[in-house]
Write a structure and sequence with these properties.
heterodimer; A: 497 residues; seven-stranded mixed β-sheet; five-stranded parallel β-sheet; 16 helices; 22 strands; B: alpha/beta; 11 helices
Chain lengths: 497, 400
């Protein structure tokens, strides 16, 4: 059992939370390994261009003036063992556990990292909302469209309709327009913020005024450019033969329920932006307790004030514990890093903890306001799917099929039971696309709250891999790498525990 | 207070099949399930309809195999009942008895297959040894390293995803009451029957208690059988066991058989959905509390050695699996008795209380269901239960 440690701390995710936690732990002399699927640090929010692209100075997105220096620090932190283009597959165990074993696969093959602590900072992904026609080519998520634009510098389509409720939609519309796209219309399910809401948010936003300002400027530019912004409007269908050709937009009431006739708008792409949901599969697979928090994105990882989950040695930071934005992710990353440091080294980090906690509290106030203001009306969204609309696109399970099964099996009242019976959530996306809709449908049909309906169980591997990858999951092929690197603190390995 | 003839505890395949059998016989039945139908071992196991002696039964020599072979009458009965059920229910049970192969890669393993075959044939199982060339004909997907295989034509698979719910629906259609999210919290003898105390979680999360009076109680509760036994002063020597299973993405049909191995833990089959299920009894680790008692409500831990070992065993037998994406590796719990034999029959000293558990309860489910339904109605089961009854554990199990 006395296999050598890969590192003191293994981190999954190199976005703001992961970078911050990694730098904090490394600053205190801990040996750190970071696993990330991208080729460079930044995560989704600070995604950088591929290194082959002609060099242009990287500009941080609106409202995050600190992003450039954080990225710079991360990229120059040679004492951290960065493992890019590497996927974490899950936590595995031994007969007698001795630390945490994280299975990964990357360019060098499969590897088993042995760490004393694990920090999960795996971000979030676009919340899928099935409407009739949503599986047509040309229907995309706001996050994905922005990624194409920011990183690959690809315009997703020429004439687009954007529909949803998240403020990101306005920024993406503005970016698309600046890049030369024809933005046909932006449909927002909610109303524009009322003066009272705007006033209420002000108190929560010292330090975030620039973010609000950027959104306001985006709206102003869109309006000036003649882009129609329609409040209280949702997209009810995408039409087209082999590709999106038009979409239907319908007026809705405060609960996002349709009122009146749909109107047709020609477009070759539909961009959906109803917000994000935590990418918490690794935490779930590791056995961390989850908590239902709809405004924060749905099922979030439960944690204490130092970001420790209920699984010993496992921490979570950033969007997996509630979608709250990069400012919050950075603060939580620092808290998690300090939590691990104090746990492993016994160093007194009270002063730093207090400071990190203060900035987390500030960020949380703003995040709460945004979450409340833009919280999705899940029941209304689930009702946008028609009976024939495919909810689980991997296994082609329609809303009607799920409701039929619920009606035929009156005692069935969990998301997992529906998954088992209908295969919804059993395909290659492992339920990421349909979990929210399935949960909402079960809740609606059984009259039970989503908290009782539960979430899909996440299993190993959290991303599908060829069976041969598991057969090769032997040890850490590059385990020497970390140990040979220079690290500042001596003896940290022996302290703690 | 509800009154019924029979209470069945457990909404797995066995409980649902038992409730359906009883309802069809015109018996009043209430099925109680603490979670959801099919939520545990029945929905998590590999769905093998295996009737040859398994690797775990032959790995410890001929003597142990002879003991295990005593369960053969149950297996032969189960093979026939699955086939009937498959015809009655169609695709929702997913029964396909297209034959099973047990593989040998060495001369030693081939000899094990020979001895095993003799033993099985003496108990009436149709099994024959195939040579390397015959194997290539029957199963071209197998690795060239396979030198011999035992072929049993009645082996196959059933669909663990949908079988138990289909039986539960059929039971309900015939008048059985099926209650989910309903836990048994007390069990006591009252008059000539049993009083079952239950606790149900309603839609707003309240715990609602209800008492049920029944003439007969049938325990079909898998790993929870021991816990229920304790309510009536029983300490059953059955051991919870955590195991691992895997499933790949869908792939065009190429694997019509149930495949097992004589020399290592392996079971392979392709589901009717096209996914390949890979198992074979690789262990996971039960969670335990501070005093070592298993925590049955917590998901067991996945073991690294099992992940790697199971993958390698599958790849050695069927090399083309290498490039197929693996979607999930999951863990589940089952029970075994120390002698590896099933446990089915009347509970000594507890008139009107019967149980069935202990290994292969999915494969043997339809047989257990018939036996329990007969016992509940005071009928003599068609199979002699003497070797399998809980009475074989002696008086030590009675701690009342």
């Amino acid at each position: 059992m006395a296999e050598p440690l890969t590192c003191d701390v293994a981190l999954v995710g190199a976005g703001p939370a992961g970078m911050m936690a990694a730098l904090t732990a490394a600053d205190h002399g801990l040996r750190v390994t970071v696993v990330d699927e991208q080729r460079r640090p930044g995560g989704q929010i600070f995604r950088q261009r591929p290194p082959e692209f002609p060099h242009q100075p990287w500009t941080p997105p609106a409202g995050y003036p600190w992003a450039s220096s954080l990225l710079e620090r991360a990229e120059s932190a040679t004492d951290i063992d960065w493992r890019f283009q590497t996927t974490a597959l899950g936590v595995v165990h031994e007969e007698r556990d001795d630390g945490i074993l994280l299975a990964t696969t990357g360019p060098g093959g499969s590897a088993l990292l042995r760490a004393r602590r694990l920090v999960i900072a795996t971000g979030a992904f676009d919340m899928p909302v099935p409407v009739p026609g949503w599986t047509l080519p040309g229907v995309m998520m706001a996050g994905a469209v922005q990624t194409l634009l920011k990183s690959q510098q690809v315009l997703a389509a020429e004439r687009l309709v954007l529909a949803g409720s998240h403020p990101l939609l306005l920024l993406v519309a503005d970016q698309l327009r600046s890049a030369g796209a024809d933005v046909a219309e932006v449909a927002l399910a909610r109303g524009l913020p009322t003066p009272r809401e705007a006033l209420g948010s002000l108190g929560a936003v010292p330090g975030h005024l620039s973010l609000l300002g950027d959104s306001a400027r985006a709206v102003a530019r869109l309006v000036a450019g003649g882009v129609r912004i329609s409040p209280r409007t949702v997209v009810t269908a995408a039409h087209g033969h082999r590709h999106v050709e038009a979409v239907s937009l319908t007026q809705v009431d405060r609960q996002w329920r349709g009122v009146g006739q749909a109107r047709r708008v020609e477009a070759d792409a539909l961009v959906l932006g109803y917000g994000f949901q935590p990418s918490a599969e690794l935490a779930r697979q590791a056995g961390c307790a989850m908590r239902w928090d709809s405004p924060a994105g749905g099922w979030v990882v439960a944690h204490d004030d130092r970001m420790a989950t209920d699984v010993p040695g496992v921490y979570a930071a950033g969007e997996p514990v509630g979608v709250s934005g990069a400012e919050m992710a950075r603060s939580q990353g620092r808290l998690a890093g300090l939590g691990v440091v104090s746990d492993l080294t016994g160093h007194n980090v009270d002063v730093e903890l207090e400071e990190a906690d203060r900035s987390a509290r500030r960020a949380r106030r703003f995040a709460r306001v945004v979450q409340r203001m833009f919280a999705p009306q899940r029941e209304a969204l689930a009702d946008l799917a028609g009976s024939d609309t495919v909810v689980c696109r991997c296994e082609l399970v329609s809303r009607g099929a799920i409701e039929q099964v619920l009606d035929a099996n009156p005692g069935m009242s969990t998301a997992n039971a529906v998954k088992l019976e209908c295969r919804s959530g059993m395909g290659p996306c492992q339920g990421r696309y349909c979990e929210t809709t399935v949960g909402t449908l079960v809740a609606g049909r059984t009259g039970r709250p989503v908290a009782q309906v539960g979430h899909f169980t996440a299993h190993f591997p959290i991303k599908p891999v060829p069976l041969s990858v598991l057969g090769e999951l032997d040890g850490d092929v590059t385990s020497g790498a970390c140990a040979h690197r220079h690290h500042r603190a001596e003896g940290s390995q022996e302290s703690g525990e | 207070m509800i009154r019924t003839d029979v209470v069945v505890v457990g909404g797995g395949l066995l409980g649902c099949a038992t409730a359906w059998t009883l309802a069809r016989d015109g018996v009043g039945v209430v099925l109680l399930e603490r979670d959801q139908i099919n939520a545990h071992a029945s929905g998590q196991n590999a769905g093998s309809l295996h009737f040859q002696l398994e690797y775990r039964m032959v790995e410890r020599g001929l003597e142990a195999a002879q003991v295990a072979a005593e369960a053969m009458p149950l297996h032969l009965d189960a093979a026939a009942r699955w086939s009937e059920l498959g015809e009655a229910f169609g695709p929702s049970l997913g029964v396909a008895q297209t034959g099973g192969l047990m593989l040998a890669e060495t001369a030693d393993q081939a000899r094990v297959l020979e001895a095993k075959g003799d033993l099985e044939r003496s108990h009436g199982l149709d099994v024959r040894l195939l040579s390397g060339d015959e194997i290539r004909d029957v199963a071209p997907y197998l690795s060239p390293s396979i030198v011999a295989a035992a072929f049993c034509p009645i082996e196959g698979k059933a669909d663990t995803r949908t079988a138990a719910p289909a039986l539960a629906r059929a039971a309900a259609d015939l008048g059985a009451q099926v209650s989910t999210r309903t836990e048994v919290v007390g069990l006591r003898r009252v008059g000539r029957g049993w009083q079952v105390s239950t606790r149900h979680t309603d839609a707003v999360g309240n715990q609602v208690g209800e008492e049920i009076q029944a003439d007969v109680v049938l325990l079909a509760a898998g790993v929870w059988t021991q816990h229920l036994g304790q309510m009536v002063g029983l300490d059953l020597p059955i051991i919870p066991l955590a195991l691992q299973m895997n499933v790949t993405a869908r792939t065009p049909k190429f694997l019509p058989h149930l495949v097992q191995h004589a020399g290592e833990r392996l079971s392979l089959k392709q589901s009717q959905d096209g996914t390949v299920l890979i198992g074979g009894g690789w262990p996971a680790r039960l969670r335990r509390d501070a005093s070592g008692r298993p925590r049955l409500s917590e998901r067991p831990h996945l073991l690294h050695d099992s992940v790697v070992g199971n993958a390698r065993a599958a790849l050695r037998a069927v090399p083309r699996l290498a490039g197929i994406p693996l979607l999930r590796t999951w863990v589940g719990m089952t029970t075994v008795a120390e002698d590896q034999l099933p446990v089915v029959g009347p509970v000594p000293g507890r008139p009107g209380l019967f149980l069935a558990t202990g290994g292969s309860a999915f494969t043997l489910g339809p047989t257990f269901a018939r036996v329990l339904a007969d016992l509940a109605q005071g009928l003599e089961p068609t199979i002699d239960l003497a070797p399998y009854g809980p009475q074989r554990f002696g008086e030590s199990i009675d701690v009342a």
